[in-house]
TrEMBL record:
Tagged with keyword Chaperone: no
InterPro entries per the UniProt record, alphabetical: AB_hydrolase_fold, Pept_S9_AS, Pept_S9A_N, Peptidase_S9_cat, Peptidase_S9A, Prolyl_oligopep/macrocyclase
Name of the protein: prolyl oligopeptidase
Region forming the signal peptide: none
């Protein structure tokens, strides 16, 4: 049988001189997915992937197991508006979560509930997703955002909750838009991009503005409130206090961890022309203000406290010089969220505060006036707590989501009157979860920094075993314990699944994030290599059984791992990745990320980027791991061009035979970077695990 060959891919002599440095880009022609040459190449890659995938055992077994584990479904924390309760839930047989309404006297799962928005009822193909929703203060109207085909280009509509009738919209260009309702449901503040005709070509994803919209009126009559003349990459947050008096506005460039913040007295200046007073401006820190029912301005900030603190001030004098620390920073835990519980009983007013200590959630109770510590809330296990919700009008209860390695997402409620935590709603399904052992281990990175990792393995037996190392390492995103059908299916089949808390995330606060960004980005990749070495040295696996896996910024991590330490891994799955770090800003939402990575327009930053850019580090003749790129045609965040170019480069350079360690590209149409139907998730995960099982030597117990 003749040796299989990779599809032909022309290597051009494209070289660009940037700041005096010659940068080779032989596959730039693959950036344009619409060109005949790129289409022909992609079709050939599709055929190669389809042919190779037939050789992997266990795909159907993994698919069935993942489908069963996803049958747990989920339930989300409620949003209360008087006696009305809104919440998300997905049962095992549903493709997407559904937004439900429970009427007075009912709770989650009761007969009185009814669906408000079911994405599959709107689009039986499963391609439509509910991106966000927010009821008005009285619970009569609901602003919600839908997008189709995975493009995340949300259309904003308003529904009459009582009748289900759409009474406003759709409003276009509302991707990632917050909605801040004014009392009475007459109007709201929101964020919308300028029309394409109003911005330079290529800038259509930027140039946001804050508007006031009156329900039922044309968007042409919306009032511009903020954003004119500011940086094109800025994102805005808006919030109106419960009494409708205070408007809070925040602005951050791209994905920056720092922001400016202002507050306006709407009672004094009116809705249409608020006069903004500075809370924080021009300072390299995060400050998120809100005004409570008690009239105090609460400021959630890492200013002067990289792990976070909670301050209070008078909203009429909102500057940092007036902030008083209410809950001080913890030297070992990161402040994540808080809820004010000011129920009807005098002396029982408290703050509920959530923390992450080395990526594991904790909840504490504090005196509302002084911030003094009153006690801790015992959680169900070593897991992750979601954001708090409480009754807008005040009360003694707070709700939050909870999950851990073996517990599907459910909701708990804390009652401050009696200091008790109880389950409010369980996940709808109860799949058989494998018996696993979960350990948090620590290891030392290249520069001596201690890094942690969560390792999930079969409860019985020892290693070495085929293992997957998963990581992300960026954008302040912490890798915390959670229910994962993919991880559990791998462990049930006999493997080890490890999640590393790499620098770049928020596991140890803002300093941890900054130690893995810009010129310090190499720390992330060193942490990943150290995690792999620890898994080997501790006897859990071997380099011939170890795979690395990640997506988006985690795809960049995988690309760096493969090109910097190919000796450590037998296989890799690289999903929706960034890989050409010289040209990433020219595609998708790339310009939003130069605050995290740096820009090739800056000579110093170009040096950082070229030092680790996976596409530029591919070396001829290197024996690379078996590598699977998974991409999505409607990905409007990270352009699939990264994977196309890297795939071609690796196929040309690798010293490993295609039969032994292939480099493959799997692509999907009509799906994007993030939310997807359950069936799509099952298919993708099963293909990824079957690939990794084949090249790490895992034999599924079910096969």
């Amino acid at each position: 049988m003749p040796e299989p060959r990779y599809p032909a891919a022309e290597r051009t002599d494209c070289v660009e001189v940037l700041h005096g440095r010659s940068v080779s880009d032989p596959y730039r022609w693959l950036e344009d997915a619409r060109s005949p040459e790129a289409k022909e190449w992609s079709d050939a890659q599709d055929a190669l992937y389809a042919e190779r995938a037939t050789r992997w055992q266990g795909r159907e077994e993994f698919a069935g197991d993942i489908r069963a584990l996803l049958g747990a479904g989920f339930v989300g924390a409620p949003a209360w508006r008087g006696d009305r309760c809104l919440y998300m839930r997905r049962t095992g047989g549903q493709e997407h979560g559904v937004l439900y309404l429970a009427e007075p006297g009912s709770g989650s799962g009761s007969a009185a509930e009814r669906p408000l928005i079911d994405p599959v009822a709107l689009d039986p193909t499963g391609g439509t997703t509910l991106d966000s929703w927010r009821p008005d203060p009285e619970g009569r109207l609901l602003a919600y955002q839908l997008s189709a085909g995975g493009d995340e280009e949300s259309l904003l509509r308003v529904m009459d909750v009582g009748t289900g009738e759409v009474v406003d919209g759709p409003i276009e260009r509302c991707r990632y838009s917050p909605v801040a309702w004014l009392p009475g449901g007459e109007a709201f503040y929101y964020v919308r991009r300028l029309a394409p005709a109003q911005v330079p070509e290529g800038d259509e994803q930027y140039h946001r503005r804050v508007y006031l919209h009156r329900v039922g009126t044309p968007t042409e009559r919306d009032v511009l409130v903020f954003g004119e003349g500011r940086d094109k990459t800025e994102h805005y947050g808006v919030e109106v206090s419960r009494d409708g008096r205070w408007l809070v506005l925040t602005a951050a460039k791209g994905t920056s961890a720092s922001n400016d913040a202002w507050i306006a007295d709407l009672a004094e200046d009116g809705w249409e022309r608020p006069r903004f007073v500075t809370v924080q401006e021009g300072h390299d820190a995060e400050a998120l203000p809100s005004v409570g029912r008690d009239g105090r301005m609460y400021v959630f900030t890492d200013r002067g406290a990289p792990r976070g603190r909670l301050c209070v001030a008078d909203p009429r004098t909102p500057g940092p010089e007036h902030w008083r620390t209410l809950v001080a920073a913890d030297p070992d835990a990161v402040l994540m969220d808080f809820a004010v519980l000011d129920g009807p009983q005098p002396g029982r007013d408290v703050l509920l505060v959530s923390w992450q200590r080395h990526a594991i959630s904790e909840v504490s109770v504090h005196d509302l006036e002084t911030g003094g510590h009153r006690g801790a809330v015992e959680l169900p296990g070593l897991g992750s707590v979601g954001g708090f919700t409480a009754r807008p009008e005040g009360g003694h209860e707070a709700w939050f989501g909870y999950t851990d390695t073996t517990s599907p997402a459910s909701v708990y409620v804390y009652d401050a009157r009696i200091g008790r935590l109880s389950q409010w709603a369980a996940a709808p399904g109860a799949p058989e979860v494998p018996d696993v052992r979960t350990e948090q281990v620590a290891f030392t990175s290249r520069d001596g920094t201690a890094v942690r990792m969560l390792v999930v393995s079969p409860a019985d037996g020892e290693g070495p075993r085929p293992a997957i190392l998963y990581g992300y390492g960026g954008f302040r995103i912490a890798m915390t314990p959670g229910y994962s059908a993919t991880a559990l299916s791998w462990v049930r089949a006999g493997g080890v699944y490890a999640v590393a808390n790499l620098r770049g995330g928020l596991e140890e606060g803002e300093e941890w994030h900054r130690a893995g960004m810009l010129g310090a980005k190499q720390n992330v990749f060193d942490d990943c290599a150290a995690a792999a070495e620890h898994l080997v040295e501790s006897g859990r696996t071997t380099p011939g059984q170890l795979a690395v896996m990640g997506g988006s910024n985690g795809g960049l991590l995988v690309g760096a791992a493969v090109t910097q330490r190919p000796d450590l891994f037998a296989a890799a799955v690289c999903s929706a990745p960034l890989l050409d770090m010289v040209r990433y800003e020219n595609f998708g939402l790339g310009e939003l990320w130069n605050v995290e990575y740096g820009s090739a327009a800056d000579p110093e930053a170009l040096g950082w980027l070229l030092d680790y850019s996976p596409y530029h580090r591919v070396a001829q003749g290197t024996v690379y791991p078996a590598t699977l790129f998974t991409v999505f045609d409607n990905d409007s965040r990270v352009d699939p061009m990264h994977a196309r170019k890297m795939c071609a480069a690796l196929q040309h350079a690798t010293g490993a035979p295609l039969r032994e360690r292939p480099v493959l590209l799997r692509r999907e149409s009509e799906v994007g970077h993030s939310n997807r139907a359950v069936s799509r998730t099952v298919g993708l995960s099963a293909d990824q695990l079957a690939f990794l099982a084949h090249f790490t030597g895992l034999v599924s117990a079910a096969a």
